[in-house]
């Protein structure tokens, strides 16, 4: 086999991946960037042929997105919501994983499936389900507890509840699988040294789980930044969720309700940039600890 | 965390980008794809986007009689989503030849250059419709952008049995309606006479029209935007005061809670449009025979005004090479007595054509107790007034939802929400470069 032949082979194998990447990632991203620099300009009444044309506006759209108070208010709401979801969901996932992994638990298989099952329910269905439980005149919960689940402040908790309910199982499973992969003799050694189950969990298991915890945290950060399904599905039921409650909802509103694809593209870019900063920032902060680099 | 959410977000982005990707293609993309049938001797094939129920049955009658023009119905979800989808398809260069266009969305279709001017083809049928309805498809310009199909004059739907029980007269004016609302609360604190929905800009628009609002108008080469005009503020403050007083509920329409209230008699009225029987029969089946209809309460005793909630036209895509065939079908569908008969029977619409309105016979099944249902509707329809919709109704309606949501949540004045609608509408039109009259 001569050198040139050998040189072509890897590319042949890479072709499907490159084609798919180009078609479904690079081109859409490129087109979004292109759209973000453009805008329609109307003349006169804007009716009839030729009254509307697309013009280049450079960074105007991105600048407008950055200066938009609604978008930042949305970020603030999502920050609160995200912190809540992250802490509660990952805390519960870790707790469940450790409990299931401990030797004393009963009905382990059943509990594992029961905790994981909500993840299999599609987000829209889950939110509708919870929506019915939140509605004042329909909710069986409201018969017992007099709480307005869809009030101005409570609505955030109600949505976080849906996300936690749906997401805990998946994260629990990731952590649990990692736990099962840890050699059992480590625990035995700890036990011989006189460590209790609690001490084993805190001193042995959690440190060994750190990479998995970081992984689930990054996934969760990205997912909460993109929160869309829960608020959009609950919105028709309450007057406490605006059309720009979360940044992604603003993108949807611009693109499909008010017909402004250009602003939607610009806002998408801002969201992507912030997601990147947050998730890579988090990785950078914890990398040394987790992977022993540096 | 949840791969499906990532997927959904990605899908949205992909739809946006891919759909608009195609806009770079030559404008006659559709034409090129279809020219073989146009040039050949085969039948012309038309696609029709609509959400009217059983439209396929009505189209089958046309197809049988017109082997040379074959129409295929593509069932849509309806409402704002359908409008967004059509605009996206038009931008992508592959819109359907025919589309059901709600009156409030038609101007945005026109502004996007997505629908054709049918002035020449529709001249013979202009007289079939009232001037008010015709104005909705011309926007008061010289062009004609669609053929009116149905209309939604507003009426007051009320629980006859419970009105008797609480000893309330059917209110003739809005003042009487407010009094009745207070009476109901006194007699049974669990029951509301009505509710104000912050989710349904269409209903509010109709009530504003009844009061004489003119949100948009065209003068010469510029738009006049006056969403926060005196009649609109009057309507907003009226409802705002009643909600604040606690005698009118603030539950949105079309929610599970609202359905429950319609069924169990804790909500006594619904100011709605002529299509309400369809909604009531599916959302409140248990209350059949208990609801009755009356004209909307008036602002001044003795008047007989109403507004429109909903209603749509049939528009023809601007880029189709089969415009003549498409208009022929649209004209048949909306003016031919047989077609209108089918529209009323199969699609349960209230026809736009004047003659058809007065020839409707049997009352809807849900209103079997009210034999004069259609006579009432025709009388109300005669006094209904609309206005020209602007090119960015989506922005205005979105501002309605956000503004009134906030007003209900924080207890701020409703007229402030109306001002928000005006400001958002004007700002959006300025940004796009529309000529605005000051």
Automatic annotation (TrEMBL), chain A:
InterPro entries from the UniProt entry: MetI-like, MetI-like_sf, UgpAE/MalFG_permease
GO cellular component, one term: plasma membrane
Annotated keywords: Cell membrane, Membrane, Sugar transport, Transmembrane, Transmembrane helix, Transport
GO biological process, alphabetically ordered: transmembrane transport
Transmembrane spans: 12-34, 78-101, 113-135, 155-176, 208-228, 261-283
PANTHER family referenced in this protein's UniProt entry, alphabetically: BLL4140 PROTEIN, DIACETYLCHITOBIOSE UPTAKE SYSTEM PERMEASE PROTEIN DASB
Name assigned to this protein: Multiple sugar transport system permease protein
From TrEMBL, chain B:
Pfam families assigned: SBP_bac_1
Signal peptide positions on this chain: 1-22
InterPro entries the UniProt entry points to: Bact_solute-bd_prot1, SBP
Alphabetical list of PROSITE patterns matching this protein: PROKAR_LIPOPROTEIN
Keywords, in A-Z order: Cell membrane, Lipoprotein, Membrane, Palmitate, Signal, Sugar transport, Transport
Protein's UniProt name: Multiple sugar transport system substrate-binding protein
Organism of this sequence: Nonomuraea jiangxiensis
